[in-house]
Amino acid sequence: MNASEALDLPLLEEGLLRVEPLLNANVVTGDSFLDSVTTHLIAAGGKRLRPLLALAAATGGEREATHDDLMGAVAVELVHLASLYHDDVLDEATIRRNVESVNSRFGNLVAIVAGDYLLARSAAIAASLGTEVAALLAETLAKLCQGQVAEVRSAFQITRSREDYIRAITGKTAALTSTSCRIGALTGGRPSTEVDALTEYGHCFGMVFQIRDDILDITATAGELLKPAGQDLAEGIYNLPTLVALADPDSGPDLRALLGQPLGQPEREKACAIVAASSGIGVAVNEARTYVERARDATSGVSNHALQEGLTQLATELLSDLPG
Ligand code: FPP
Ligand code: MG
User: Which of 42, 225, 227, 264 is the most buried (most CB within 10 A)?
Assistant: First the structure.
């Protein structure tokens, strides 16, 4: 998915290009070792979805981004990067964005402290944008942690509820996409009804994004994912497709016999095949569609028609590589 193309708003790509040097400039310390750690994942690239949401919400592509719009975009991307530094320590990941992960390259301790450093830089930027943005980012950080803890606590639990899943992804993913839109809407000086509409859009976008990611973890090939399929199953993270498959009398018994414990390669492939063939995929795709509808409804609160259309297209695009 090319997110900028889906949004199709003038001046947005240009704004995103201006974010890149600012990301680097805001994390360099002058200490060459620390700089190589703090810029590691920035250099590896990425979709920059959160800055894109922030800039789209701020400008609607109608005008050039201001310094505050750009710094809001930098602040949310730094929180995202920090969460990946920490997530890769938790997951003992070795690869991220097609390069060696920070923990693998520099060790867990450095990865954790460098993640904290990125958060500190983000907090300082948020403070420069005013108390509302600073408070918003701090609350979002708390939600990210709550979402992540919910996920860790439910690891390997075949009795995990759908509500628990929704709660976890609301925190770990949708909180930051929602805040990205809200910060953009605030730096862009939009009226409060539009700020709220864009916040709701960002929440729904994040939900679709994560549900899609969780479906693809089962259905995509290792080549498409840049990691082996069934990674979440192997880590004991039972997502919506798996929870539905566990509850379905057709697939549940065989799946329950495998899950609840770490999996070797043959068991992982078997579990992945059971979930892929189960009703769980269709149910999860439908859930994603429901959030796209909600995202579309939210955009009706935005006055700029091109922005409405672009945001709806962006959310719809997320469904394009899903089965069914
Ligand atoms: C990646 O998701 C991880 C997240 C979306 C959030 C992780 C949050 C924390 C570690 C809490 C602490 C937060 C901060 C800001 C320090 P994933 O594991 O589903 O996807 P992946 O396959 O890309 O790893
Ligand atoms: Mg992870």
Answer: 42
